[in-house]
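User: Predict structure, ligand glutathione.
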Amino acid sequence: MQLFHSPTSPFVRKVLVTAHETGLAARIELLPANPWDQPAALIAINPLSKVPALITDDGIILYDSPVICEYLDGLHTGRRLLPPQGQQRWQVLRTQALADGILDAAVLRRMESLRPAGRQSPDWLALQAVTVGRGLDALEHEARQWNADVDLGTITAACALGYLDFRFAEEDWRAGRDALRHWYDVVRQRPSMMATVPQGG
Ligand SMILES: N[C@@H](CCC(=O)N[C@@H](CS)C(=O)NCC(=O)O)C(=O)O
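Assistant: Predicted complex:
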Protein backbone atom coordinates (compact mmCIF):
# COMPACT_ATOMS: atom_id res chain seq x y z
CA MET A 1 0.00 0.00 0.00
CA GLN A 2 1.13 3.55 -0.66
CA LEU A 3 0.18 6.47 1.54
CA PHE A 4 0.51 10.11 0.51
CA HIS A 5 1.68 11.72 3.68
CA SER A 6 3.08 14.79 5.35
CA PRO A 7 5.06 14.33 8.58
CA THR A 8 3.15 17.12 10.35
CA SER A 9 -0.41 16.19 9.36
CA PRO A 10 -2.46 14.94 12.32
CA PHE A 11 -4.84 13.17 9.93
CA VAL A 12 -1.91 11.24 8.47
CA ARG A 13 -0.74 10.48 12.00
CA LYS A 14 -4.16 9.01 12.77
CA VAL A 15 -3.79 6.62 9.81
CA LEU A 16 -0.26 5.68 10.85
CA VAL A 17 -1.28 5.08 14.48
CA THR A 18 -4.08 2.86 13.18
CA ALA A 19 -1.57 1.02 10.98
CA HIS A 20 0.71 0.43 13.97
CA GLU A 21 -2.14 -0.67 16.23
CA THR A 22 -3.31 -3.18 13.60
CA GLY A 23 0.17 -4.52 12.77
CA LEU A 24 0.06 -3.15 9.23
CA ALA A 25 2.64 -0.36 9.41
CA ALA A 26 5.35 -2.31 7.59
CA ARG A 27 3.04 -2.82 4.60
CA ILE A 28 2.67 0.91 4.00
CA GLU A 29 5.08 2.81 1.76
CA LEU A 30 5.10 6.54 2.49
CA LEU A 31 4.92 8.98 -0.43
CA PRO A 32 5.86 12.45 0.86
CA ALA A 33 3.60 15.26 -0.36
CA ASN A 34 2.95 18.85 0.65
CA PRO A 35 -0.79 19.12 -0.05
CA TRP A 36 -0.75 22.93 0.15
CA ASP A 37 1.48 22.98 -2.96
CA GLN A 38 -1.24 21.12 -4.91
CA PRO A 39 1.21 18.49 -6.22
CA ALA A 40 0.08 16.83 -9.46
CA ALA A 41 0.76 13.31 -8.17
CA LEU A 42 -1.54 13.85 -5.18
CA ILE A 43 -4.26 15.63 -7.18
CA ALA A 44 -4.24 12.74 -9.64
CA ILE A 45 -5.55 10.47 -6.91
CA ASN A 46 -7.30 12.97 -4.61
CA PRO A 47 -8.86 15.94 -6.40
CA LEU A 48 -9.15 17.70 -3.03
CA SER A 49 -5.33 17.74 -2.73
CA LYS A 50 -5.45 16.56 0.86
CA VAL A 51 -3.43 14.02 2.77
CA PRO A 52 -3.85 11.28 3.81
CA ALA A 53 -4.70 9.41 0.61
CA LEU A 54 -4.05 5.71 0.18
CA ILE A 55 -3.49 3.46 -2.83
CA THR A 56 -4.27 -0.10 -1.80
CA ASP A 57 -2.43 -3.18 -3.06
CA ASP A 58 -5.44 -3.73 -5.34
CA GLY A 59 -5.05 -0.23 -6.78
CA ILE A 60 -8.11 1.19 -5.01
CA ILE A 61 -7.77 4.85 -4.08
CA LEU A 62 -9.06 5.81 -0.64
CA TYR A 63 -9.49 9.06 1.24
CA ASP A 64 -10.10 10.61 3.74
CA SER A 65 -8.73 9.42 7.10
CA PRO A 66 -11.96 7.82 8.43
CA VAL A 67 -12.29 5.80 5.21
CA ILE A 68 -8.63 4.75 5.20
CA CYS A 69 -8.71 3.79 8.89
CA GLU A 70 -11.84 1.70 8.43
CA TYR A 71 -10.21 0.00 5.46
CA LEU A 72 -7.08 -0.85 7.48
CA ASP A 73 -9.24 -2.10 10.35
CA GLY A 74 -10.75 -4.62 7.94
CA LEU A 75 -7.35 -6.08 7.04
CA HIS A 76 -6.31 -7.54 10.39
CA THR A 77 -7.58 -10.30 12.66
CA GLY A 78 -7.14 -8.58 16.02
CA ARG A 79 -9.66 -6.64 18.07
CA ARG A 80 -11.59 -4.23 15.85
CA LEU A 81 -10.77 -0.54 16.35
CA LEU A 82 -14.17 0.24 14.84
CA PRO A 83 -16.75 -2.14 16.31
CA PRO A 84 -18.67 -3.72 13.42
CA GLN A 85 -22.11 -3.06 14.87
CA GLY A 86 -24.12 -1.98 17.86
CA GLN A 87 -24.22 1.10 20.02
CA GLN A 88 -20.47 1.05 20.58
CA ARG A 89 -19.87 1.51 16.84
CA TRP A 90 -21.87 4.75 16.81
CA GLN A 91 -20.11 6.03 19.89
CA VAL A 92 -16.69 5.38 18.35
CA LEU A 93 -17.75 7.08 15.09
CA ARG A 94 -19.09 10.08 16.99
CA THR A 95 -15.88 10.46 19.00
CA GLN A 96 -13.93 10.24 15.75
CA ALA A 97 -16.12 12.97 14.23
CA LEU A 98 -15.65 15.15 17.31
CA ALA A 99 -11.87 14.79 17.31
CA ASP A 100 -11.69 15.24 13.51
CA GLY A 101 -13.73 18.44 13.94
CA ILE A 102 -11.32 19.72 16.57
CA LEU A 103 -8.52 19.03 14.11
CA ASP A 104 -10.30 20.74 11.23
CA ALA A 105 -10.69 23.90 13.34
CA ALA A 106 -7.13 23.73 14.71
CA VAL A 107 -5.63 23.26 11.22
CA LEU A 108 -7.70 26.17 9.85
CA ARG A 109 -6.47 28.31 12.73
CA ARG A 110 -2.89 27.30 12.09
CA MET A 111 -3.13 28.08 8.37
CA GLU A 112 -4.75 31.47 9.02
CA SER A 113 -1.98 32.31 11.50
CA LEU A 114 0.62 31.71 8.77
CA ARG A 115 -0.84 34.43 6.52
CA PRO A 116 0.77 37.88 6.59
CA ALA A 117 -0.25 39.63 9.82
CA GLY A 118 -2.28 42.33 8.07
CA ARG A 119 -4.36 39.79 6.14
CA GLN A 120 -5.32 37.58 9.06
CA SER A 121 -8.85 37.71 10.40
CA PRO A 122 -8.87 37.95 14.21
CA ASP A 123 -12.58 37.04 14.21
CA TRP A 124 -11.92 33.90 12.18
CA LEU A 125 -8.99 32.92 14.41
CA ALA A 126 -11.11 33.45 17.52
CA LEU A 127 -14.01 31.45 16.09
CA GLN A 128 -11.76 28.45 15.40
CA ALA A 129 -10.22 28.71 18.88
CA VAL A 130 -13.68 28.68 20.48
CA THR A 131 -14.67 25.65 18.40
CA VAL A 132 -11.54 23.79 19.52
CA GLY A 133 -12.24 24.69 23.15
CA ARG A 134 -15.85 23.47 23.00
CA GLY A 135 -14.72 20.27 21.32
CA LEU A 136 -12.12 19.66 24.02
CA ASP A 137 -14.74 20.17 26.73
CA ALA A 138 -16.89 17.51 25.07
CA LEU A 139 -13.89 15.16 24.84
CA GLU A 140 -13.17 15.78 28.54
CA HIS A 141 -16.70 14.60 29.30
CA GLU A 142 -16.23 11.48 27.17
CA ALA A 143 -12.76 10.74 28.56
CA ARG A 144 -14.23 10.01 32.00
CA GLN A 145 -15.50 6.72 30.50
CA TRP A 146 -12.36 5.80 28.54
CA ASN A 147 -9.98 3.00 29.51
CA ALA A 148 -6.56 1.86 28.31
CA ASP A 149 -7.92 0.16 25.15
CA VAL A 150 -7.85 2.40 22.10
CA ASP A 151 -10.39 2.50 19.29
CA LEU A 152 -10.71 4.65 16.17
CA GLY A 153 -12.38 7.42 18.17
CA THR A 154 -9.79 7.61 20.92
CA ILE A 155 -6.91 7.27 18.43
CA THR A 156 -8.29 10.35 16.68
CA ALA A 157 -8.60 12.15 20.01
CA ALA A 158 -4.98 11.30 20.88
CA CYS A 159 -3.80 12.67 17.52
CA ALA A 160 -5.84 15.84 18.07
CA LEU A 161 -4.25 16.43 21.48
CA GLY A 162 -0.83 15.67 20.02
CA TYR A 163 -1.43 18.26 17.30
CA LEU A 164 -2.40 20.90 19.87
CA ASP A 165 0.82 20.19 21.78
CA PHE A 166 2.76 20.40 18.50
CA ARG A 167 1.24 23.58 17.05
CA PHE A 168 -0.25 25.41 20.05
CA ALA A 169 2.15 24.40 22.82
CA GLU A 170 1.86 27.78 24.49
CA GLU A 171 -1.86 27.20 25.12
CA ASP A 172 -2.72 24.88 27.99
CA TRP A 173 -5.51 22.58 26.75
CA ARG A 174 -4.99 20.50 29.91
CA ALA A 175 -6.22 23.23 32.28
CA GLY A 176 -9.54 22.14 33.80
CA ARG A 177 -9.56 18.91 31.77
CA ASP A 178 -8.14 16.38 34.21
CA ALA A 179 -9.72 13.25 32.71
CA LEU A 180 -8.34 14.07 29.28
CA ARG A 181 -4.94 14.99 30.70
CA HIS A 182 -4.59 11.75 32.68
CA TRP A 183 -5.80 9.64 29.77
CA TYR A 184 -3.44 11.35 27.31
CA ASP A 185 -0.45 10.93 29.63
CA VAL A 186 -0.93 7.16 29.25
CA VAL A 187 -1.98 6.93 25.60
CA ARG A 188 0.85 9.10 24.31
CA GLN A 189 3.30 6.45 25.52
CA ARG A 190 1.88 3.70 23.36
CA PRO A 191 4.42 2.47 20.77
CA SER A 192 2.03 3.55 17.98
CA MET A 193 1.99 7.12 19.29
CA MET A 194 5.73 7.21 20.04
CA ALA A 195 6.54 6.00 16.50
CA THR A 196 4.47 8.77 14.89
CA VAL A 197 5.40 11.93 16.80
CA PRO A 198 5.13 14.86 14.32
CA GLN A 199 8.45 16.04 12.93
CA GLY A 200 9.51 19.27 11.29
CA GLY A 201 8.19 22.77 10.96
N1 LIG B 1 -11.14 15.17 6.49
C1 LIG B 1 -9.79 14.94 6.02
C2 LIG B 1 -8.93 16.14 6.39
C3 LIG B 1 -7.53 16.03 5.78
C4 LIG B 1 -6.80 17.38 5.82
O1 LIG B 1 -7.38 18.44 6.07
N2 LIG B 1 -5.49 17.32 5.55
C5 LIG B 1 -4.71 18.53 5.47
C6 LIG B 1 -3.34 18.33 6.07
S1 LIG B 1 -3.39 18.25 7.82
C7 LIG B 1 -4.52 18.85 4.00
O2 LIG B 1 -4.11 18.00 3.25
N3 LIG B 1 -4.82 20.09 3.62
C8 LIG B 1 -4.59 20.56 2.29
C9 LIG B 1 -5.65 21.51 1.81
O3 LIG B 1 -6.66 21.68 2.51
O4 LIG B 1 -5.46 22.06 0.73
C10 LIG B 1 -9.25 13.65 6.63
O5 LIG B 1 -9.77 13.22 7.67
O6 LIG B 1 -8.34 13.02 6.04
